[in-house]
Design brief:
Elements: H1 5-35, H2 39-66, H3 78-89, E1 94-97, H4 111-123, E2 130-137, E3 144-151, H5 158-164, H6 178-189, E4 194-198, E5 203-208
Helix pairs in contact: 1-2, 2-3, 2-4, 3-4, 4-6, 5-6
Length: 209
């Protein structure tokens, strides 16, 4: 197994960056509880700590499967990936629609992990919020999915397309784009390709081929 230390470091940077805010908010809430006597402010501090602790827990669970080995296990299926994706989007201005009532069956290990990390990545392109429409076709090794992002503003860096296609320059990686690189690697491991189609200022399509 070849391990690129720089990629590992950047992935950890991304992971820690996302966790710092909610964990810091938990700490702030607890500090307020130590000194505050006003009942209303105490209630607000408790609510802040509870919300932030939940957010930190959601991020840990989502990244454990999207970035860690837990997502490679055969037991990590479509339903769990969708639940984690919905939890990840909780409280944001991004919605997830089009989830099929019947889950695809006999999915190869890692397929649901790729779906989860794809939803996380595409949610970040909706700078002002919007909708992620999921389309799933087929079962087993032939199963494919598409994620269509639509919103008032799409933010998609020029280097993402290369990184998602597995053609990016690793030397150009940073904590901002490492998630796109990892998504491309996951698709390659599954012997699949990611195609990005831009449909104007407010639409972006992510297709797993």
């Amino acid at each position: 197994m070849k391990i690129d230390l720089a990629v590992l470091e950047l992935t950890c940077s991304r992971f820690c960056h996302d966790l710092i805010s909610p964990i810091g908010a938990v700490n702030n809430g607890l500090e307020l509880l130590e000194d505050e006597q006003d009942p209303e402010l105490v209630a607000e501090a408790r609510a802040l700590a509870a919300r932030s602790a939940r957010r930190a827990s959601i991020l840990l669970q989502a990244y454990r499967c999207a970035l860690g080995n837990a997502g490679n296990q055969a037991s990590f299926g479509f339903g769990e990936a969708i639940k984690l994706a919905r939890d990840f989007l909780e409280g944001s201005k991004v919605t997830l629609s089009g989830v099929p009532a019947m889950s695809p069956s006999d999915l190869p290990a890692g397929w649901s992990k790729l779906l989860l990390i794809g939803i996380i990545l595409m949610s970040e392109t909706l700078a002002r919020g919007g909708d992620l429409a999921l389309k799933v076709e087929g079962d087993g090794a032939t199963a494919r999915f598409a994620i269509i992002a639509e919103g008032a503003q799409i933010v998609f860096a020029d280097d993402y397309k290369l990184l998602l296609g597995g053609d990016g320059n690793v030397a150009a990686l940073d904590a901002r784009n490492v998630l796109a690189y990892l998504t491309g690697l996951l698709a390659t491991r599954l012997r699949m390709k990611i195609e990005i189609i831009q449909g104007g200022a407010g639409k972006l399509e992510f297709h797993l081929r």
